[in-house]
TrEMBL record:
Name of this chain's protein: Glucokinase
This protein's record includes keyword Nucleus: no
SUPFAM superfamilies: Actin-like ATPase domain (SSF53067)
Species: Dictyobacter alpinus
UniProt keyword Kinase, yes or no: yes
Keywords: Kinase, Transferase
InterPro entries to which the protein is assigned, alphabetical: ATPase_NBD, ROK
Single GO molecular function: kinase activity
Family per record: Belongs to the ROK (NagC/XylR) family.
Length: 322
């Protein structure tokens, strides 16, 4: 039976595929009326099959309960929304490259389906319903396993004819002789502040700091930020370096896109009180803006629901692209 809260036009069934979870929600107009989260397997081989089977299973269950008019999928990688395919992506989802996800979802679930880049959908959600609301131009970064980016200019999301415009902010070069990134470049922002980078910096730092409480924890960003909150010297130095690298990347993006505001989301932002003021100070000192110091760096407000709202907006307003 269809959900009585849905209108005759139906609602949008939105999926957001992350590194460890699939988030899904029913978007009716401007309201998220139902949300669910499912865990994914961690092994690369199981991951791609797990993505498809979980989406279809969750979709079939929700379609039986709600009046759904269309389906949208937010997923990382360079995505061609016209064909519904991932054109390129790093690591665990590589087996999905050139798989017609949109066509498969539409066939299995019996609704038209849109597939789009996750950072682009996150930014669109924050632009229409979150921290970017009220601005015409935003840069949005998601901080976690990698660094996702997207840009809104004059109220339209950058995409371009090859679907790459605005989403490679995590792969701007911050350090020309820095570590190699998963994309193949050297010294990318992601290679310096992503999960793997922070874990590596913890391990390197522990070789010369016998007193750090990080010797007794896992070497993950979550434990790093927790140690910094306890004023651990090594953790504080890594977080300080993280803030400078992030600030440097944001300055370059401000110079490239001239936004009104920079919105930061993703898992690391749970600890933004440890680094956001330092990032803002770096941006104020180094970004060339008129007037100087104009661009505010602010936390995202929608959290896990941002990309779900973005998917619905992309379906409702297909002309919101540039």
């Amino acid at each position: 039976m269809a959900d009585e809260g849905c209108s005759a036009q139906g609602a949008i069934l939105a999926f957001d595929v992350g590194g460890t979870r699939i988030k899904t929600g029913i978007i009716q107009g401007d309201t998220l009326i139902k949300g669910e989260v499912a865990a994914l397997n961690h092994t690369a081989g199981a991951h791609t099959d797990d993505v498809r089977s979980r989406i279809i299973h969750m979709g079939q269950s929700l379609l039986a309960q709600h009046n759904i008019s269309a389906i949208g999928l937010s997923i990382r990688g360079i995505v061609d929304p016209q064909s519904g395919m991932i054109l390129d992506v790093n690591e665990t989802l590589r087996e999905l490259i050139h798989v017609p996800l949109g066509e498969q979802l539409s066939r299995e679930l019996g609704r038209p389906a849109l597939v789009e880049n996750d950072a682009r959908m996150y930014a669109l959600g924050e632009f229409t319903h979150g921290a970017g609301r009220g601005y015409a131009n935003i840069v949005c970064l998601t901080l976690g396993t990698g660094v996702g980016s997207s840009v809104v200019i004059n109220g339209r999301v950058l995409r371009g004819q090859r679907s790459m415009r605005g989403i490679l902010g995590g792969h701007i070069t911050i350090q020309a002789d820095g570590p190699r990134c998963s994309c193949g470049n050297i010294g990318c922002l992601e290679a310096l502040i992503g999960t793997a980078a922070l874990s590596r910096q913890i391990e390197e730092g522990l070789t010369s700091d016998a007193a750090s409480i990080l010797h007794k924890t896992e070497h993950t960003p979550r434990h790093l930020f927790a140690a910094a909150a306890q004023h651990d010297r090594l953790a504080l130095s890594i977080v300080d370096r993280f803030a400078r690298h992030l600030g440097c990347g944001i300055v370059s993006l401000i110079h490239a896109y001239d936004p009104d505001v920079v919105v930061l989301g993703g898992g690391f932002m749970h600890s933004h009180h440890l680094f956001l003021s330092a990032v803002q100070a770096y941006v104020d000192a180094h970004a060339w803006t008129i007037p100087r110091g104009r661009v505010v760096v602010t936390p995202a407000t929608l959290g896990d629901t941002a990309a779900l709202y973005g998917v619905a907006q992309a379906i409702f307003h297909p002309d919101m692209y540039l």
